[in-house]
Structure to design on (594 residues):
């Protein structure tokens, strides 16, 4: 199509986890077919292979021609040759051209399978028509009128797979062996987290998946119907995180058959698929992998360690860094257990103050045991309740040790920061809790500190909020101006406001309900105050009227005449007493002089 561009309309598949996965799947010298639009950075990552790009828009073909070995512009009918790896991470709908004969989903898959040599690999992306992205999008999928929303064949086509099971069945029917699949969050074409669907469906209480899903879905600029982070975590706990993923990446292998037709190899033995591929730092900081080792899941960084900013001259305090990402520290086991934030939320929703006191006291005791001279360093200093897991025996551990503190932080400040963030989530998120609604975020932080046995004052909490702004700014890669705006927004958080970040219709409604309840309370209090003032004013008027009536009666006048001589006598007695006292003092003073 001469004027069509998938790259310009945002339909290209990309993301650092996808690039890391393909770098592992594609061997040196392999022939690779990129079918459909993909991020041009992917071509740089596959420089060790011979890459052919199949695109349907001429502007896209011109843009990648210098990077690819071959560029084919047109529909799927232009596929030729045999390839070791075929990648269609943007889905099959992005391959079909309006200038070619419509083939349909099944026929497109058969074309790709035909181009795959025996023993080769197919990486296919597919959008979930009932995924998380569509559930929270305020714009229905059928209302889009942009170029990015157009497709030759829509999602209502009968031969298009509707879920992951149907997708794997179609691959099997096409003669492939599905080998592995990943759930893509928070967007299926540009995922920041790729999670293996098998462990994701089985490990419902995994602290790792809980933290990854929440962090991946919490960031975004577009308004949503409801909080996707909360919905993704709820889907995890019900075993639906893989089924409700915005999309999937499925890896299939074309088996090699012998002379008698027997399958020689059903999956390549040279590749070990990861449990998860994550973007745990700011953009451009590389990918962190979770793989299944001999002793359980383990961390592995797929990027070189970054330099420690503590070795550089410190800028002014307003722009001083508090934390930095060090991929070199992500090398140990992934601790097992539930995320501490989830455990605390469960206790809050049950109004179990005893359990809350035990959990928070144990957490504060663990924090104090990690420090030296009441100061914390390393990953513990910048880890909140969303990066700490609680084991079956009640032991605590940092989930992801990749973020490190530049300078030591006071234990009180670290505790106050964790409790402030939890309190802000409770109040702005609309969670039911056992405390009075008149508490603000700082006040609830002080109350939570009391449950740990610590006396946190508002000055400590104010310092903790500044540290929170600095840590979040480092995680998101914000500049000084954006960091200052973030700090101001965090200081201005109120219980009646929606959570900071992307706008959610559901949370805006909950904030409106809280504001209405607060206005109702204030209106009732104002009415009670006005009623009290009116009652007091009426009582005062009655007293004044009574005094006016009494002052005009004969008895009042006779009493006043009788009291007047007594007042004069009392006044004269007082004057005489003062004169006597003065004379006595003079006499005593003269005797002392003699």
């Amino acid at each position: 199509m001469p004027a069509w561009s998938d790259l310009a309309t945002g339909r290209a598949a990309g993301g650092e986890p996808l690039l890391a996965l393909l770098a592992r799947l594609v061997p040196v010298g392999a022939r690779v077919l990129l079918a459909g639009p993909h991020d041009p950075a992917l071509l740089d990552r596959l420089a060790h292979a011979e890459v052919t790009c199949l695109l349907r828009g001429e502007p896209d073909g011109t843009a990648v021609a210098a990077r690819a070995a071959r560029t084919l512009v047109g529909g799927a009918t232009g596929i030729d040759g045999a390839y070791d790896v075929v990648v269609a991470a943007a889905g099959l709908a992005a391959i079909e051209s309006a200038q070619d004969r419509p083939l349909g989903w099944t026929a497109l898959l058969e074309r790709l399978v035909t181009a795959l040599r025996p023993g080769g690999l197919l990486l296919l992306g597919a959008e979930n028509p009932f995924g998380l992205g569509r559930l929270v999008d305020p714009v229905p999928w059928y209302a889009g009128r942009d170029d990015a929303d157009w497709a030759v064949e829509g999602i209502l086509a009968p031969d298009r797979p509707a879920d992951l099971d149907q997708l794997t069945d179609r691959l099997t029917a096409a003669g492939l062996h599905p080998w592995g699949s990943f759930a893509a969050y928070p967007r299926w074409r540009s995922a920041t987290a790729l999670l293996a669907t098998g462990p994701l469906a089985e490990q419902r209480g995994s602290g790792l998946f809980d933290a990854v899903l929440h962090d991946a879905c919490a960031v975004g600029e577009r308004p949503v119907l409801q909080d996707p982070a909360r919905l993704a975590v709820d889907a995890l706990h019900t075993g639906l995180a893989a089924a409700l993923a915005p999309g999937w990446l499925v890896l299939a292998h074309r088996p090699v058959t012998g002379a008698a037709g027997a399958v020689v190899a059903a999956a390549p033995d040279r590749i070990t698929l990861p449990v998860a591929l994550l973007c745990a730092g700011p953009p451009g900081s590389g990918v962190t992998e979770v793989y299944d080792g001999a002793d359980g899941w383990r961390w592995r960084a797929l990027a070189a360690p970054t330099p420690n900013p503590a070795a550089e001259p410190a800028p002014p305090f307003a722009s001083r860094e508090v934390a930095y990402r060090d991929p070199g520290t992500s090398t140990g086991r992934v601790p097992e257990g539930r995320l501490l934030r989830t455990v605390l939320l469960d206790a809050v929703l049950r109004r179990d103050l005893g359990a809350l006191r035990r959990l928070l006291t144990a957490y504060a005791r663990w924090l104090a045991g990690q420090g030296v001279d009441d100061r914390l360093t390393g990953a513990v200093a910048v880890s909140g309740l969303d990066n700490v897991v609680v084991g079956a025996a009640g032991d605590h551990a940092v989930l992801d040790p990749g973020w490190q503190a530049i300078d030591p932080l006071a234990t009180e400040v670290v505790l106050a920061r964790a409790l402030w963030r939890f309190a802000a989530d409770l109040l702005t998120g609309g969670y039911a809790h056992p405390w009075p609604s008149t508490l603000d975020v700082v006040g609830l932080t002080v109350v939570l500190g009391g449950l740990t046995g610590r006396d946190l004052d508002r000055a400590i909490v104010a310092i903790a909020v500044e540290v929170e702004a600095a840590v979040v700014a480092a995680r998101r890669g914000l500049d000084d101006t954006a960091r200052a705006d973030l700090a101001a927004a965090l200081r201005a958080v109120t219980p009646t406001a929606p959570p900071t970040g992307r706008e959610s219709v559901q949370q805006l409604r909950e904030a409106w309900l809280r504001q209405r309840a607060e206005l109702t309370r204030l209106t009732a209090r104002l009415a009670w105050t006005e009623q009290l003032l009116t009652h007091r004013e009426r009582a005062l008027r009655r007293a004044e009227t009574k005094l006016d009536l009494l002052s005009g009666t004969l008895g009042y006048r006779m009493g006043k005449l009788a009291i007047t001589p007594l007042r004069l006598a009392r006044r004269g007695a007082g004057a005489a007493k003062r004169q006597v006292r003065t004379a006595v003092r003079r006499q005593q003073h003269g005797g002392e002089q003699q």
